[in-house]
Design a protein that fits this description.
The chain is α/β, with parallel strands linked by helices. The chain folds into 4 domains: 4-17 and 177-340, MoaB/Mog-like domain (Molybdenum Cofactor Biosythetic Enzyme, Chain A); 21-43 and 140-174, Molybdopterin biosynthesis moea protein, domain 2; 47-136, Molybdopterin biosynthesis moeA protein, domain 3 (Beta Complex); 349-422, Beta-clip, CATH 2.40.340.10. It has helices at 4-12, 24-27, 157-165, 203-214, 228-235, 262-268, 322-340, 396-400, and strands at 20-23, 31-32, 36-37, 47-48, 52-55, 68-71, 90-94, 106-109, 113-116, 119-122, 135-136, 147-149, 170-174, 178-184, 188-189, 199-200, 217-224, 247-251, 272-276, 280-281, 287-292, 312-318, 349-353, 368-376, 383-386, 403-407, 417-422. It is elongated. The structure holds ligand LQZAQKY5 and molybdate ion. It catalyses: adenylyl-molybdopterin + molybdate = Mo-molybdopterin + AMP + H(+). One of its GO terms (molecular function) is molybdopterin molybdotransferase activity. Pathway: Cofactor biosynthesis; molybdopterin biosynthesis.
Length: 443
C-alpha cells in the first residue's frame, strides 16, 4: 500500500515523452520542444489598415488648402488584389489588408474622402495625410527570426494561431500522451434504465473530456466484459503493429474478486507495478504500472520510436466504484498525464474547512479521505463546504463539487487549512451567484 503522497509523486515524476513534430492542429495544448521563431517578417508586406484610398503625394494645385488626387478607376477588389505602383498625384481604392502599392504615402479612410468625377479630395479635416498613416509596416509585429514563444511554453489556441501567422504547418512539441481506455464490467450499460444486475456507465462519457483537458489524446475506447482474455488482448502490446499507446487506463476490476481481472493479467504480462493500492478512500485499489511498449528488437521498430530507456506503456487502473474511479484519476492520472506531456503540474489549492470533516481515523483507519466539496469566499482563503452523497459508489456529490478535499486521517476542524484538488472537467468559474444577487438592470 503506497502512501497518498508517495503515490502522487510517483505518478508526477514519470519522464516526459520524447519530442515529435506534429501538424499544427495537433500541437494545441502541447509544450513546445523548441523556440517558436517567426519564419518571415510579420506583416511580410506593408498593408492598409483601413478601407479607403492609397495616396501618392497630392497633385500640385494652386490652392494648397484643398489637396486633391486623380482617382484610378479600378481599385482593389479585396486584400488579395496586387495594385500597380502609384503615379505622382494618383490615388487608388484599397480595403483593409490590401498590400499598398509602391509610391503610397498614406491611406485616407473612405469616410474622410470625397470622389467627384474621378477627382478625389478631402471631405473633412483628417490626420490621414501624415506619411505612413493607416499603413501597417513590414515586420511591425515581428521580424523574421524573432522569438514569439519559448521552448517549454504550453501552446494555447491563440498560440497555434500565432504559429500559423508565423508560417508554420507543423511544430516540434512534447506530444499529448496517447491513451487507450478500457472500460470493464459485464453489468455496465450505456443507455436506458438499468435493470437488476445492470448499472449505467459513468466513465465512458466523462473520461474522454477529462483526459483531453488534462493534456492527453484519446487513442481508442473499448468496452469489455469481465473477461481476462479480452483484457489481456488489449493490454498485450506485442507484436505492436502500430505505435503503442503511452498510457492505458482501465476502469473496474482492480479488486480481488473472481470478476476482477486486472491484477492477474498484469502479472501474466510481467508488468512492473509502481503503485499497488493507495492509502486513500475512496480509490484505494487504484493501481499504477508499466509494461514494455514494444519488445521487438530495436531494428524492427518503427523509425519514430522513443529511446530505449523510455519504451514503456503506463497502465493506470481506476477502481470501478464511480467516485473511487474519478478520485484515482484526479490523484494519479492528472499528475501522470502532465508529467508525460511535460506540462507544469497543477498549483496546489489551499482552502479553509467551513465545517468539521471527519477523517479515516474515526473508522479506525489511517490514510486520507477525499471528500467532494464546493468553494465559497473566505476572508483570506476560499472556504470549502463538504457535500453529502459522497460515498465511493456515488456520483451525486461529485456532480456538484468543485474540488476534492484531501482530508487527513485525524479529520478537519472548522477553520483548518487543507489542500484541495480541482475536480477534472469543471471550469474554474464558480456557479454560485454573486453576493446580493445578480446586478440590477437600470430601467
Ligand atoms: N472484499 C473486498 N471487496 C472490495 C474491496 C476490498 O478491499 N475487499 N474494495 C472495495 C473498494 S474500496 C472498491 S473501490 C471496489 C473496487 O472495485 P473494482 O475496481 O474491482 O471494480 P468492480 O468490482 O468492477 O466494480 C465496482 C463497482 O463499480 C461499478 N462499476 C464498474 N464500472 C462501472 C462503470 N463503468 N460505470 C458505473 N459503475 C461501474 C460496478 O458495477 C460495481 O458496483 O471494490 C470494493 N470491493
Ligand atoms: O477505495 Mo473504495 O474506492 O473506498 O470504494
Amino acid at each position: 500500500m503506497a502512501s497518498f503522497d508517495h503515490a502522487r509523486s510517483t505518478a508526477a515524476s514519470s519522464p516526459a515523452l520524447p519530442a515529435r513534430t506534429v501538424p499544427l492542429q495537433e500541437a494545441l495544448g502541447c509544450v513546445l520542444a523548441e523556440p517558436l521563431r517567426a519564419q518571415l517578417d510579420v506583416p511580410h508586406v506593408a498593408t492598409s489598415a483601413m478601407d479607403g484610398w492609397a495616396l501618392a503625394a497630392p497633385l500640385p494645385v494652386p490652392d494648397a488648402e484643398d489637396p486633391c488626387w486623380r482617382a484610378r478607376s479600378q481599385g482593389a477588389e479585396g486584400p488579395s488584389t496586387l495594385l500597380a505602383p502609384l503615379a505622382a498625384g494618383e490615388a487608388v481604392g484599397v480595403v483593409t489588408g490590401s498590400p499598398v502599392p509602391e509610391g503610397t504615402v498614406s491611406v485616407l479612410r473612405s469616410e474622410h474622402a470625397r470622389l467627384d468625377a474621378g477627382r478625389l479630395s478631402l471631405a473633412q479635416q483628417t490626420p490621414d495625410l501624415e506619411p505612413g498613416r493607416n499603413i501597417r509596416p513590414v515586420a511591425a509585429e515581428a521580424a523574421a527570426g524573432d522569438l514569439l514563444l519559448d521552448s517549454g511554453e504550453e501552446l494555447s489556441a491563440a498560440g497555434t494561431a500565432a504559429a500559423a501567422v508565423a508560417g508554420y504547418d507543423a511544430l516540434r512539441v512534447v506530444p499529448r500522451p496517447r491513451v487507450r481506455l478500457i472500460l470493464t464490467g459485464s453489468e455496465v450499460i450505456t443507455s436506458g434504465l438499468p435493470g437488476p444486475g445492470q448499472v449505467r456507465d459513468v466513465f465512458g462519457l466523462a473520461l474522454p473530456s477529462m483526459l483531453h483537458e488534462a493534456g492527453a489524446q484519446l487513442e481508442s475506447m473499448h468496452r469489455i466484459d469481465d473477461d481476462p482474455a479480452e483484457l489481456r488482448r488489449l493490454l498485450d502490446l506485442e507484436p505492436a503493429a502500430e505505435p503503442a499507446p503511452d498510457l492505458i487506463i482501465t476502469t473496474g476490476g482492480t479488486a480481488a474478486s473472481r470478476a476482477d481481472t486486472l491484477r492477474p493479467v498484469l502479472t501474466e504480462l510481467e508488468a512492473e507495478i509502481l503503485v499497488s493500492h493507495v492509502d486513500m478512500r475512496p480509490g484505494h485499489p487504484a493501481l499504477f504500472a508499466r509494461i514494455p511498449a514494444d519488445q521487438r528488437p530495436a531494428e524492427q521498430q518503427p523509425a519514430e520510436q522513443r529511446p530505449a530507456d523510455q519504451r514503456h506503456t503506463y497502465v493506470l487502473g481506476l477502481p470501478g466504484n464511480p467516485l473511487a474511479g474519478f478520485a484515482a484519476l484526479t490523484v494519479l492520472g492528472l499528475p501522470l498525464i502532465a508529467a508525460l506531456a511535460a506540462r507544469s503540474q497543477a498549483e496546489p489549492l489551499w482552502a479553509q474547512a467551513a465545517a468539521e470533516i471527519s477523517g479515516a481515523a474515526r473508522r479506525g483507519r489511517g490514510g486520507v479521505r477525499l471528500v467532494p466539496a464546493r468553494l465559497g469566499v473566505g476572508d483570506e482563503e476560499p472556504l470549502v463546504h463538504p457535500l453529502e452523497h459522497a460515498q465511493a459508489h456515488m456520483m451525486r456529490g461529485l456532480a456538484q463539487a468543485e474540488v476534492l478535499v484531501v482530508v487527513p486521517a485525524e479529520g478537519l476542524a472548522v477553520g483548518d487549512q487543507v489542500e484541495c484538488l480541482k475536480v477534472p472537467g469543471r471550469s474554474d468559474r464558480s456557479s454560485q451567484p454573486p453576493q446580493g444577487g445578480p446586478p440590477k438592470r437600470r430601467s
